[in-house]
Amino acid sequence: MSTEFFWRLPLGSDGHDLASDKNTRGSAIYRPGNIAPGRLPNGEPDGFTYIDYIAQVAKAAELAGFEGALLPTGPEPWIAAAALARETRRIKFLIAFQATWTLPAYAAQQAAILQNLSHGRLDWNIITGGNPASQRANGDFLEHDKRYQRTGEFLDIIKGLWENESFSYQGDIYQLENGSLPRGLNKERKPGVYFSGFSDPALDVAARHADVYLNWAEPVDKLKPHIERVRELADKQGREVRFGIRIDLFARETEEAAWSDLRRQYERIDAKTSDFIKNFASGSDSVGAARQTAYHQNSQRFEDLIIGPNLWAGFGKAKPGPTIGLVGSHENVAERLAEYRDAGFSTFILAGNPHLEEALRIGQEVLPLVHQRPVAETAPVTAGLKAAG
């Protein structure tokens, strides 16, 4: 089983620690001490902008041995990926986006063009959306299950366009008549579909379309039953699916140093950040997000958020998204990553603040240790891939 490691790019902004509202890198609003946008000694802009910083992180991830980079959901992943394709040589771009933001035929055409421009380095992290208020702010008023129906139809059309010179489709949400990819680009690789979701409608879409089924980190024994269910559903569709995991890392030279530094950062998270996270989580209708929130919502003490060896559930106190991360020495973190690998996970989407320095640290100090650890002879979850497109 081959293993691939992605690094999350900090689209929007980055910070030097867990206090996510104290962004000092990439923010469009200049503040003293910011890295991007930068200033000359006389206070004038120095021309170093947001995309320059993101490019540095992407280059660092490539240099450090990561196979790919996740561009998180929002309005800019497609734009940033096109720019970064000129700044890098081999790293893949995992673009996160929602089906609601564009028509499927147009997305397929864009993807074929970007594959051609980047020499086939595009994959998709298809997001369905899990916060109704956020969805409505972007003009999407469909309820939870209907959103997944839309995602399924979206991917039906993508598949049809890539497999046919001309393709028509009649669904409840999308219709297409004689659609096609741009002329001369129908031989470009269809982007791999990285997909997640814990609800029944999500699992139906995953079984039919996911090449890699993604999970937010939880203790391995909590994820195994769910993974087995996904595999069984995919088997009924005549497909096999690989499995991936998103997880934040906090690695230092020693375990003691990691826990000490993390505690210091945790104690600096301010009330404004905490209130924002609580409000965002309370408005979500995502089953997966609810699982994550359950690990930390009733705990405030740092020690109470330690839920297993090197597992800490406090990352969700500082930012939306993954709650559980790995904390410890380089060796500790490598050992835990290897345990997930041996449980059947072959894709790892990793992150840490600040993203530039941590990409180099993790790539140089942790990933080699993971690769050096022998793979268990029999992994509980098989991870082949028949339908990469």
Protein described:
- The structure is a single chain.
- This protein is an alpha/beta fold.
- It has one domain (4-372): TIM Barrel (Alpha-Beta Barrel), CATH 3.20.20.
- The protein is 40% helix and 18% strand.
- The protein contains 12 helices and 15 strands.
- The strands form 3 sheets. The chain has an 8-stranded parallel β-barrel with strand order 1-4-5-6-9-10-11-15, surrounded by 7 helices.
- A hairpin with a 7-residue loop joins strand 2 (14-15) and strand 3.
- Helix 11 (330-342) packs across helix 12 (355-372).
- It starts with a strand and ends in a 17-residue tail after the last helix.
Largest sheet: 8 strands, parallel, barrel
- How are strands sequenced across the largest beta sheet? 1-4-5-6-9-10-11-15
Low-confidence stretches: 379-389
Structural class: alpha/beta
Q: Give the CA-based shape.
A: globular
Q: Whole-Å distance between the termini?
A: 19 Å
Query: Care to count the β-strands?
Result: 15
Question: How many independent structural domains?
Answer: 1
- Rg (C-alpha, Å): 21 Å
CATH fold-level topology: TIM Barrel
Secondary-structure element order, as H and E?
Answer: EEEHEHEHEHHEEEHEHEHHHEEEHEH
**What fraction, in percent, of the residue positions are helical?**
25-40%
In the CATH scheme, the class would be Alpha Beta
CATH superfamily grouping: Luciferase-like domain
Average pLDDT over all residues: 90
* Relative strand content: 15-25%
Total count of helical runs of at least 4 residues: 12
The second-level CATH architecture is: Alpha-Beta Barrel
